[in-house]
Specification:
The complex is a heterodimer. Chain A is α/β, with parallel strands linked by helices. Chain A is built from 5 helices and 6 strands; from the N terminus they run H-E-H-E-H-E-H-E-E-E-H. Chain A has a 5-stranded mixed beta sheet, sandwiched between helices. Chain A is elongated and about 115 Å long. By secondary structure, chain B is α+β, with helices and mostly antiparallel strands. Chain B has a single domain, classed as ATP Synthase, domain 1 (Sandwich), CATH 2.60.15.10. In chain B, the strands form 2 sheets. A 5-stranded mixed beta sheet of chain B has the order 2-1-9-8-5, with no helix packed on it. A 5-stranded antiparallel beta sheet of chain B has the order 4-3-6-7-10, with helices on one face. Chain B is globular. Classes of the chains: A alpha/beta, B alpha+beta. Chains A and B meet through helix 1, helix 3, strand 3, helix 4 and strand 6 of A and strand 1, strand 5, strand 8 and helix 1 of B.
């Protein structure tokens, strides 16, 4: 019959080991997801590159093209888009972004600029709601594997508000996937659109373009696409970062579980040994008492 | 053999098709356009319809909904939110493009009810 102490330690070992099974499974899942997410980031790159090239060319061709989406307005109401995940267990992934965004929100309040908050992912929604911020629009279920349709929905929402002048600028707070080891929370200005700089043309002015229908009409269609593509790229990077952060967190958790199991099993061995020693000395003591008696 | 030029069909999620072609036809908002090597630089908005790429050896049909067509330095780029390679002829491609358009409209209608809370 094991002593109470031994039983307790063994129970803890079992619990730590079953937790370890879960964390190591999550680590493996996240690792496989990173590969996929990374491939999606890369697959989206050609489109964005081409779009940037086209906008650069059109911009160069139509001279100083002016478009509502390109003009900086007096910043009275700032739109803030926060991109986090729906699920936790990803280390500092969500809190880094949220902390950065909240610092900005406080700074904006200090400058007496109105705010409109757009949240992607359950984590930012519950954080800001709990703290009493009003959330204009929340998007759920996009961060795991973002589709282009999700990006379009988000881009359309902020475009509409921007067009109606309810907001004068939009900045996003999200995580950039720098490498498998580094993901950094960044501020990513979305609106007004910073026109991408045209790639150095070899002296041939883009003015030679024939436009169908007109440069303005093309620009009108191009810029929203560009915003969508930016948002899409942002979501993809955030998703890759989320999986990378989760993998790292789960790896750390698995290792911690291993260490803990080692320590606990030493304690268990010690307790068992102590128990045996007590038993033996009890028997010896008992026998001794008999012989003496 | 006719002169060829580089063609890329790119959608946000992938490069749909890339290679050399002799002739490309596509439907823009202003009407159908046919492109051969040495075409002048052009920027056009694409409509819903089919684009055909003739490489000499084969013909690739792509269903396209929206996007842009750029011809620049003998390079043709089709940028489209929705582009898919379609087996079969132009008719199938047009049907498919129409389906893409409907899918988009359905998605947009879906957005209307979206202001989600938890």
């Amino acid at each position: 019959m094991a002593s109470a102490e031994l039983r307790l330690i063994r129970r803890r070992i079992r619990s730590v080991q079953s937790t370890k099974k879960i964390t190591s499974a999550m680590e493996l899942i996240a690792a496989s997801r990173i590969v996929k997410a990374q491939a999606r980031v890369e697959a989206a790159q050609p489109y964005t590159d081409k779009l940037v090239e086209v906008i650069g060319n059109v911009g160069a061709a139509s001279g100083a093209a002016s478009h509502p989406l390109l003009e900086t307005r007096d910043n009275r109401t700032a739109g803030v888009l926060v991109v986090t995940s729906d699920r936790g267990l990803a280390g500092g992934y969500n809190s880094n972004v949220i902390r950065m965004a909240e610092r900005k929100l406080i700074a904006l309040k200090g400058e007496r600029i109105d705010l409109r908050l757009y949240c992607v992912g359950k984590k930012s929604i519950s954080y800001f709601r709990y703290r009493g911020y009003q959330i204009e629009r929340a998007f759920l279920g996009v961060t795991d594997t973002p589709g282009y349709g999700d990006a379009r929905a988000i881009a359309n929402t902020i475009l509409n508000d921007y067009a109606q002048e309810t907001i004068d600028s939009v900045g996003a707070y999200t995580t950039r996937y720098v490498s498998a080891l580094t993901q950094t929370a960044v501020e990513w200005p979305l609106l007004p659109i910073e026109p991408p700089v045209a790639e150095e043309t070899d002296g041939t002015p883009g003015a030679a373009y024939t436009y169908e229908p007109s440069p303005e009409a093309i620009l009108n269609r191009l810029l929203p696409r560009y915003l969508e593509a930016s948002v899409f790229g942002m979501l993809l990077e955030a998703s890759a970062s989320e999986h990378a952060a989760r993998r790292r967190a789960m790896k750390a958790a698995t290792e911690a579980a291993e260490d803990l199991t080692k320590i606990l099993s030493r304690q268990a061995n010690q307790a068992r040994q102590a128990e045996i020693t007590t038993e033996i000395s009890e028997i010896v003591g008992g026998a001794e008492a008999l012989t003496v008696g | 053999m006719a002169a060829t030029f580089q063609v890329d069909v790119v959608s946000p999620e992938a490069v749909v098709w890339t290679g050399e072609a002799e002739l490309v036809t596509a439907r823009t908002t202003e009407g159908d356009i046919g492109i051969m090597a040495g075409h002048e630089p052009t920027m056009a908005a694409l409509a819903t319809g089919s684009a055909e790429i003739h490489t000499g050896a084969e013909k690739v049909t792509v269903a396209v909904h929206g996007g842009f067509l750029q011809i620049y330095r003998n390079q043709v780029t089709l940028l489209s939110d929705r582009a898919e390679i379609v087996e079969g002829g132009a008719d199938e491609a047009r049907t498919q493009a129409q389906a893409l358009r409907e899918a988009e409209e359905a998605a947009q209608d879906g957005d209307e009810g979206q202001p989600q809370s938890e």
